[in-house]
Amino acid sequence: MACAESLTVSFTPTCDAIKKVGGFANFGYILAVNDLASITASSGTISALGWDSTKVLTKFTTKERQVTAESPILDEGEGNITLVTHTVNLPIYFNTQAEINAIQTILQTDQVAVILPTANKQFRAYGLVNDDTDYDFDNFGMKVTGGADAPGQNLNDASRINITLTGDMPNLPCYVLDTDYATTLALLEGYLTN
Question: Which of 133, 137, 169, 190 is least buried, going by the fewest C-beta atoms within 10 A?
Fold first, then answer.
């Protein structure tokens, strides 16, 4: 079931279990592919995202090293398309009913994409096509293929939902705006509002 609504709630819980002294707040961005009007790509790098009216990018905050992403390659060869399985294991922490409702939207959306920072301060896009001349970008994306609701067992445990997003794509996860970290971050942060 494709969801027509934009993902509009940022997941930035205030619970102490995530924001420990000296800790690191990992982050990323998530979007519904159907919220995009266009993708601008050159040499495989995405340089811009065009949004449908009122649609936005959504940011999430999580713990260090909790987000993992793999891309197994299923090469059919001999002129057939090579498919790469984009997989993101994403724990989303929540404090409010609005955040739970937004998580429910992700669960019901067939085409989701995630943009993650890398260790060397670049950003890679999972679930997005990097060549919209050969492929219709809105025919691809990831969907929730597994997960668990983990409300926490001990004092100060954060409530979280562990989600696995998976989708077969015609390309490896590509870079977003292949330039310096500050410029790319500013571009992505600018997509948080329309």
Answer: 133
